[in-house]
Amino acid sequence: MPFGNTHNNFKLNYSLDDEFPDLSQHNNHMAKALTKEIYAKLRDKQTPTGYTLDDVIQTGVDNPGHPFIMTVGCVAGDEESYDVFKDLLDPVISDRHGGYKATDKHRTDLNHENLKCGDTAGLTESCSPVGLGFESRLGCLVMD
Questions:
Q1: Looking at the domain that runs over 7-96, which CATH code has it been given?
Q2: What is d(CA 131, CA 72) in angstroms, rounded to the nearest whole number?
Q3: Contact predicate 40/79, CB 8 Å
Protein backbone atom coordinates (compact mmCIF):
# COMPACT_ATOMS: atom_id res chain seq x y z
CA MET A 1 0.00 0.00 0.00
CA PRO A 2 1.47 3.37 -1.00
CA PHE A 3 0.52 5.17 2.19
CA GLY A 4 1.21 2.30 4.61
CA ASN A 5 -0.77 3.84 7.47
CA THR A 6 -0.16 1.37 10.26
CA HIS A 7 -0.91 4.24 12.66
CA ASN A 8 -4.61 3.95 11.83
CA ASN A 9 -5.00 0.69 13.79
CA PHE A 10 -2.80 1.95 16.64
CA LYS A 11 -4.78 5.15 17.12
CA LEU A 12 -7.98 3.15 17.63
CA ASN A 13 -6.58 2.32 21.08
CA TYR A 14 -7.50 5.89 22.04
CA SER A 15 -11.01 7.08 22.78
CA LEU A 16 -12.93 9.24 20.35
CA ASP A 17 -12.67 12.19 22.74
CA ASP A 18 -8.88 11.82 22.93
CA GLU A 19 -8.50 11.46 19.17
CA PHE A 20 -10.98 14.07 17.86
CA PRO A 21 -9.06 17.23 16.89
CA ASP A 22 -9.88 20.59 18.45
CA LEU A 23 -10.91 22.67 15.43
CA SER A 24 -12.55 25.51 17.35
CA GLN A 25 -9.95 28.04 16.16
CA HIS A 26 -9.83 26.75 12.56
CA ASN A 27 -11.31 28.54 9.57
CA ASN A 28 -11.75 25.98 6.83
CA HIS A 29 -14.59 24.00 5.28
CA MET A 30 -13.41 20.74 6.82
CA ALA A 31 -13.51 22.21 10.33
CA LYS A 32 -17.09 23.37 9.71
CA ALA A 33 -18.21 19.97 8.42
CA LEU A 34 -16.35 17.52 10.68
CA THR A 35 -18.43 16.49 13.67
CA LYS A 36 -17.68 13.88 16.32
CA GLU A 37 -20.35 11.69 14.74
CA ILE A 38 -18.70 11.83 11.31
CA TYR A 39 -15.26 11.31 12.86
CA ALA A 40 -16.49 8.28 14.82
CA LYS A 41 -18.01 6.76 11.70
CA LEU A 42 -14.94 7.30 9.48
CA ARG A 43 -11.93 7.09 11.82
CA ASP A 44 -11.32 3.37 11.21
CA LYS A 45 -11.94 3.49 7.45
CA GLN A 46 -9.30 3.53 4.74
CA THR A 47 -9.20 3.28 0.98
CA PRO A 48 -7.62 0.28 -0.78
CA THR A 49 -4.41 2.32 -1.09
CA GLY A 50 -4.35 2.94 2.67
CA TYR A 51 -5.59 6.55 2.72
CA THR A 52 -7.28 7.29 6.07
CA LEU A 53 -9.49 9.98 7.54
CA ASP A 54 -6.43 11.39 9.29
CA ASP A 55 -4.76 11.76 5.90
CA VAL A 56 -7.87 13.50 4.53
CA ILE A 57 -8.03 16.10 7.32
CA GLN A 58 -4.33 16.50 8.17
CA THR A 59 -3.78 19.65 6.09
CA GLY A 60 -6.77 21.36 7.70
CA VAL A 61 -5.67 20.37 11.19
CA ASP A 62 -2.09 21.57 10.61
CA ASN A 63 -3.15 24.83 8.95
CA PRO A 64 -5.91 26.57 10.91
CA GLY A 65 -6.33 29.20 8.22
CA HIS A 66 -6.92 32.92 8.31
CA PRO A 67 -10.08 34.57 9.67
CA PHE A 68 -10.81 36.19 6.30
CA ILE A 69 -9.72 33.38 3.97
CA MET A 70 -11.80 30.20 3.98
CA THR A 71 -9.71 27.27 2.76
CA VAL A 72 -10.90 23.74 2.02
CA GLY A 73 -8.92 22.07 4.80
CA CYS A 74 -8.87 18.53 3.44
CA VAL A 75 -7.71 16.48 0.49
CA ALA A 76 -8.93 13.34 -1.25
CA GLY A 77 -5.89 11.11 -1.63
CA ASP A 78 -7.30 8.88 -4.32
CA GLU A 79 -10.46 8.19 -6.29
CA GLU A 80 -11.90 5.91 -3.61
CA SER A 81 -11.62 8.69 -1.02
CA TYR A 82 -14.77 10.27 -2.45
CA ASP A 83 -16.77 7.12 -1.65
CA VAL A 84 -15.11 6.03 1.61
CA PHE A 85 -15.13 9.53 3.15
CA LYS A 86 -18.25 10.93 1.45
CA ASP A 87 -19.88 11.77 4.80
CA LEU A 88 -17.20 14.43 5.23
CA LEU A 89 -16.26 15.28 1.65
CA ASP A 90 -19.80 15.81 0.32
CA PRO A 91 -20.61 18.60 2.83
CA VAL A 92 -17.18 20.17 2.27
CA ILE A 93 -17.67 20.18 -1.51
CA SER A 94 -21.21 21.51 -1.14
CA ASP A 95 -20.10 24.31 1.18
CA ARG A 96 -17.09 25.23 -0.96
CA HIS A 97 -19.05 25.25 -4.21
CA GLY A 98 -22.20 27.07 -3.13
CA GLY A 99 -24.56 24.17 -2.52
CA TYR A 100 -23.27 21.76 -5.18
CA LYS A 101 -24.72 18.39 -4.15
CA ALA A 102 -23.33 14.92 -4.82
CA THR A 103 -26.31 14.31 -7.11
CA ASP A 104 -25.68 17.45 -9.18
CA LYS A 105 -24.11 17.11 -12.60
CA HIS A 106 -21.91 19.65 -14.32
CA ARG A 107 -23.40 20.33 -17.73
CA THR A 108 -20.84 20.71 -20.48
CA ASP A 109 -21.87 22.33 -23.75
CA LEU A 110 -18.97 22.34 -26.19
CA ASN A 111 -20.95 24.10 -28.93
CA HIS A 112 -19.29 27.51 -29.29
CA GLU A 113 -22.46 28.97 -30.81
CA ASN A 114 -24.21 28.62 -27.45
CA LEU A 115 -21.74 30.88 -25.62
CA LYS A 116 -23.29 33.97 -24.09
CA CYS A 117 -21.26 36.97 -23.02
CA GLY A 118 -23.37 38.35 -20.22
CA ASP A 119 -24.66 41.82 -19.47
CA THR A 120 -21.38 43.62 -18.80
CA ALA A 121 -21.18 47.05 -20.46
CA GLY A 122 -18.71 47.26 -23.30
CA LEU A 123 -19.18 43.74 -24.64
CA THR A 124 -19.45 43.27 -28.35
CA GLU A 125 -22.56 41.59 -29.68
CA SER A 126 -20.61 38.62 -31.00
CA CYS A 127 -18.22 38.44 -28.04
CA SER A 128 -15.39 37.97 -30.48
CA PRO A 129 -11.99 38.80 -29.00
CA VAL A 130 -10.57 39.68 -32.42
CA GLY A 131 -9.11 43.17 -32.24
CA LEU A 132 -10.03 43.60 -28.59
CA GLY A 133 -8.10 43.45 -25.34
CA PHE A 134 -8.82 40.15 -23.67
CA GLU A 135 -8.60 39.68 -19.91
CA SER A 136 -7.32 36.45 -18.42
CA ARG A 137 -10.79 35.52 -17.17
CA LEU A 138 -13.66 34.76 -19.52
CA GLY A 139 -14.97 38.01 -20.89
CA CYS A 140 -14.64 40.22 -23.90
CA LEU A 141 -13.80 43.84 -23.20
CA VAL A 142 -13.70 46.69 -25.67
CA MET A 143 -10.46 48.63 -25.37
CA ASP A 144 -10.63 52.29 -26.43
A1: 1.10.135.10
A2: 39
A3: no
- By the 10 Å C-beta count (0-12 exposed, 13-18 middle, 19+ buried), 25 is classed as exposed
- Residues 1-11: tens digit of each pLDDT: 445 555 666 66
At 67-118, the pLDDT tens digits run: 999 999 999 999 999 999 999 999 999 999 988 888 888 888 888 788 776 5
Backbone phi and psi for residue 70, each to the nearest 5 degrees, phi listed first: -85, 115
Q: How many helices (H) and strands (E) does the chain have?
A: 7, 0
3-class SS of residue 113: helix
Per-domain residue ranges of the chain: 7-96, 107-144
